[in-house]
Amino acid sequence: MQKKKPKLGQNFLVSATAQAAIVDALGDVATRTVVEIGPGRGALTGMLASRAQRLVAIELDAELAARLRGEFGGRENVEIRQEDVLETNFAALRDGGERLMVVGNLPYYITTEILLRLFRCAEDIERAVVMMQREVADRVAAEPGGRDYGVLSATAQLYGRVEKLMTLPPGAFSPPPEVYSTVVRLTMKPRFAELGVDAEEFVAFVRACFAQKRKMLAKNLRNAGYAPDAVHEAMAASGVKLTSRAEEAGLDGMAALWRRLRGTPVMTGG
Predict the structure, then answer these.
(1) Are strands 12-13 and 33-37 parallel, antiparallel or unpaired?
(2) What is the pLDDT of residues 104-127, one digit of tens each?
(3) Which of 97, 127, 186, 234 is buried most deeply by CB count within 10 Å?
(4) Do 86 and 112 share a domain, yes or no?
């Protein structure tokens, strides 16, 4: 029993003001399906159940899931699922044509994995209001050119609009974590068509651009297998300085590079 706490990293939100603000940030969900990630002891679940047309709460902890079923099992619009959200089929949860609304306090130890999962399911999700460690939120919302801007920033902003809503102190939780937490609202609106890029190929390209964040972008692209001459020509044509790092290019610059480099031979081996 005792090893569940460190394994799952549970810090339960106890601030009533923060709970209400998070639910309000989702907007009107009276005709929507809401997916709650990690409901824990149900701090948000009751409010969501009274507002949403349908609520699907996904809880990994078997004991907490059983407790939630005992409390909310009698409500026709609430479904408690004991499963790993990384395995959840979001498309199967959609009811008709409406996309899903997502809310949750993300476990610190798998925050990035959950965010990437949500981005991959962007066509099935309209909005997500999620809480994470403040430092991670800073990276998700970072602007190009800043020190915090990296592959997570670029990926998040490739899939939608990022808004930091509020930052909460450790005392808003029980037990209190050792860090501050920030609530972020993600409005899913992928930019692949706008940027003129292929989704799967460009996401891989962005990762290659940031492979070694402190190295120059040209070096990372050469390490990814692109010929030096092709890299230099693409950067010149795209208006990206040869001395730039990936965070300075931003999504527009990286998209321009991808369009120039796509179809050029990729070298293999050393």
Answers:
(1) unpaired
(2) 999 989 999 999 999 999 999 999
(3) 186
(4) yes
